[in-house]
Every structure is written in structure tokens, then in C-alpha cells.
């Protein structure tokens, strides 16, 4: 495989796309996932004539002299530029739509503008902006895949949360980072220093925060990514952010009071802590949990007994335990982060806590 480096203007990309010689998304590239804010900040960088990362293009020329250019790295950048200037698009590709710069800061001179709103000289400069381009010549799709595979072998691949950290900057990720700084996580040793270095603490808090807002959801990276994308385009705060933050802290405080010994029982592991946290958040939000001294004692005792029942049932599938424990164990043994299994554990724990509160009221 041969390669060389050069530069190409925005105008060149527009022309190649208009003549169907620019392929924006080859089969091995991921689908576009950029938020409106990310697109706006890319355009802002170009308008300010700031550098952006290199574009990687595969060149294929036919015996008749027709040359096609396939974007193998940087397709979201090129797609965003073409969307902004309003290039003719495939009518079947619904996400390929024009946009305005409404996500730029208020002080930006281009905030809210469409490409057609820009002064003529600014539009000319935009078309003349040059991307650094690396060309891969006479390379098959297999060659390109092999090249990226070889490059990745010499790098430590980013995990899902590290990619989010590099991609998103909105109010949701900012709140996650603040909540992950709470000393409690280190105190109960739920996340190791090595995991913190790889941002596993942020991933864990992301799951908790999503659960507080939406109830139990799946823990797969793609699911968490969807919520990051959902909240990215809000400027300062996402809907009900202050109430959500207050509920998160109130839930954490409730756990501290109810289970001061949490690191010594099963509720101190990530899987069970998630279920406990989201269940208590639900009860607090619905005002079904008033933390009197008697309620604290009842719930704490119920959770400790429940923890022992779960351990017993996990060790012996024939052990005589409560129906709550049987349901919980069935949903914790395999695929514990699956949405359905999280929901099953969530309901079992809600039923258990509700029963402990009912016993308190009947006394």
C-alpha cells in the first residue's frame, strides 16, 4: 500500500461530493453520531482558521480514469462541513440536514447563523480552508482495515468512558465529573486507583445518574453513549438538572445513614450498589421514603438480612429464602447489567423496602 500527504480545500470536498466521487461512509466506518454542538464547534474552528485533525482518504482509480475518494477517517468532520454549506444530499439519508450555528457561545459573532448568513468574504475563506489529508493509494478495504489494526496494536485503545470524555463537553458530562469526585467512592473502595486512571469511576457514576433520571437501564456502552448524546446539546443545564443533582446527593446520604457498614456486605459491590442506589432514588423521588430513625433501622435491617439471603441462595439454589431473594438471584447470576435483569432486581428491592416500611407503619 502506498500513501502520501497533501492538503485539500473545503471547496474540493464539495466538488467531489457533488460529482459522486467522494464516498462519505465506507462500509467499515461507524455511523455519524456527532451532536449539534460538536458540529457547531468544528465549523467555528474552521471559521477561526484553526487546525483540525487530519483526514484519511482511500483513492481508487478505474481503468477508464475515474477516481473515487473514500473517507476512511474523518467522515464526521467532512459530513458536518457539507451539511453546513448545504451540499446536495441523498434525500433518503435523513440525518444529512443543514444546520445553523445555534450551539456556539453567545459571544460568538457567528452564533445562530446559517452558511448563507455569513458575509461573502467569510464564505470565500471557508471554502478555501485546507484540511490536512493523507491519501491511501491502491489500497483494498482489507488493506485499510489491516493498517488500522496494526496501528491500534501499538496503542492502548480508549475505553468507552475515555472516548466519551474526549467527545462530549455538555452539562451531563460536567455533572458526572463533579459527582465522581465525591470522596465516598474512595472511602468504600468500590473503584480501585487503576480503574480511576481509566475513568471507570466516571462510567459507574454515569450509570447511576442515568438510573436516577430514567430508572434502571442497560449498562452497555452503547446505551450510556445514547444518553450522553441526548443531553449534549443543552448549553448550561439539561432539564431538571438541579433537582436531579439534589436527588443524587440525597440518595447517597440515605445509603450512608442506612448502611454505614456497606463495604462489608454485598451492597458494597458495583452491581448491587447500582440496584440499591436506583431503587432508593425512586422511593425518594416518589416521596415514599421518609427517613425517620425507625425507618432507617427497619430498612437497614431488611437490607442486611436480604444480603445474607442472596448469598445463601447463590451458594445453594435449594436454600429456603424469601421470594424477593429468589427473584433477585435469578437476575444477578448472568447478564447482570442487562436492562431486563436490572429492572427485575430493582422491583424485588422496591418490594422488599416497601414491605419493611409497611411493617414499621403497622407497629
What report would you give on this structure?
The chain is α/β, with parallel strands linked by helices and 363 residues long. It folds into 2 domains: 2-155, Conserved hypothetical protein from pyrococcus furiosus pfu- 392566-001, ParB domain; 162-362, no CATH class. 54% of the residues lie in helices and 9% in strands. It is built from 16 helices and 5 strands. Strand 3 (55-61) and strand 4 form a beta hairpin. The longest helix is centred in the last third of the chain and has 24 residues, at 339-362. It is elongated, with a radius of gyration of 26 Å.
Question: What's the structural blueprint in terms of helices and strands?
Answer:
Layout (H helix, E strand, L loop, with lengths): L1 E8 H9 L3 E2 L12 H12 L7 E7 L5 E7 L1 H11 L34 H9 L1 E8 L3 H13 L6 H8 L3 H10 L3 H4 L5 H5 L2 H15 L6 H12 L8 H18 L11 H16 L7 H23 L7 H8 L8 H24 L1
Parallel strand pairs: 2-4, 3-5
Antiparallel strand pairs: 1-5, 3-4
Helix pairs in contact: 7-10, 10-13, 12-13, 13-16, 14-15, 14-16, 15-16
Task: Write a short abstract of this structure.
The protein is α/β, with parallel strands linked by helices. 54% of the residues lie in helices and 9% in strands.
- Looking at the chains present, what oligomeric state does this protein adopt? single chain
Helix content: 40-55%
Distance N terminus to C terminus?
80 Å
How many helical elements?
A: 16
How large, in whole angstroms, is the Cα Rg?
26 Å
Q: Helix and strand succession?
A: EHEHEEHHEHHHHHHHHHHHH
Content of β-strand: 5-15%
Task: Note the main sheet.
Answer: 5 strands, mixed
Beta-strand segment tally: 5
Spatial ordering of strands, largest sheet: 1-5-3-4-2
Please state the average pLDDT score. Answer: 88
Overall, the morphology is elongated
- The number of distinct structural domains comes to 2
Contiguous runs where pLDDT drops below 50 for at least 5 residues: 89-95
* Structural classification: alpha/beta
Amino acid at each position: 500500500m502506498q500513501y502520501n500527504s497533501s492538503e485539500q480545500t473545503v471547496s474540493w470536498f464539495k466538488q467531489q461530493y457533488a460529482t459522486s466521487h467522494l464516498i462519505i461512509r465506507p462500509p467499515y466506518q461507524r455511523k455519524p453520531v456527532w451532536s449539534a454542538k460538536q458540529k457547531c464547534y468544528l465549523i467555528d474552528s474552521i471559521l477561526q482558521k484553526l487546525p483540525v485533525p487530519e483526514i484519511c482518504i482511500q483513492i481508487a482509480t478505474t481503468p477508464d480514469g475515474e477516481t473515487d475518494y473514500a473517507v476512511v477517517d474523518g467522515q464526521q468532520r467532512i459530513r458536518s462541513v457539507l451539511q453546513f454549506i448545504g451540499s446536495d444530499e441523498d434525500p433518503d439519508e435523513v440525518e444529512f440536514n443543514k444546520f445553523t450555528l445555534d450551539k456556539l457561545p453567545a459571544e460568538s459573532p457567528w452564533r445562530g447563523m446559517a452558511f448563507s448568513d455569513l458575509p461573502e468574504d467569510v464564505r470565500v475563506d471557508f471554502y478555501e480552508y485546507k484540511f490536512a489529508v493523507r491519501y491511501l493509494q491502491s489500497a483494498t478495504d482489507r488493506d485499510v482495515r489491516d493498517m488500522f489494526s496494526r496501528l491500534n496494536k501499538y496503542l492502548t485503545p480508549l475505553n468507552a468512558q475515555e472516548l466519551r470524555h474526549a467527545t462530549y463537553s455538555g452539562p451531563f458530562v460536567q455533572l458526572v465529573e463533579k459527582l465522581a469526585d465525591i470522596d465516598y467512592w474512595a472511602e468504600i473502595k468500590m473503584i480501585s486507583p487503576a480503574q480511576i486512571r481509566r475513568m471507570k469511576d466516571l462510567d459507574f457514576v454515569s450509570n447511576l445518574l442515568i438510573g436516577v433520571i430514567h430508572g434502571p437501564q442497560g449498562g452497555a456502552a452503547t446505551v450510556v453513549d445514547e444518553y450522553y448524546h441526548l443531553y449534549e446539546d443543552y448549553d448550561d443545564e439539561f432539564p431538571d438538572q438541579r433537582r436531579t443533582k439534589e436527588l443524587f446527593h440525597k440518595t447517597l446520604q440515605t445509603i450512608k445513614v442506612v448502611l454505614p457498614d456497606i463495604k462489608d456486605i454485598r451492597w458494597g459491590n458495583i452491581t448491587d450498589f447500582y440496584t440499591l442506589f436506583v431503587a432508593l432514588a425512586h422511593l425518594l423521588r416518589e416521596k415514599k421514603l421518609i427517613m425517620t430513625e425507625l425507618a432507617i433501622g427497619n430498612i437497614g435491617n431488611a437490607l442486611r438480612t436480604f444480603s445474607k439471603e442472596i448469598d445463601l441462595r447463590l451458594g445453594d439454589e435449594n436454600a429456603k429464602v424469601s421470594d424477593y431473594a429468589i427473584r433477585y438471584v435469578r437476575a444477578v447470576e448472568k447478564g447482570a447489567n442487562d436492562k431486563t435483569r436490572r429492572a427485575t432486581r430493582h422491583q424485588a428491592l422496591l418490594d422488599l423496602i416497601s414491605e419493611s416500611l409497611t411493617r414499621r407503619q403497622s407497629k
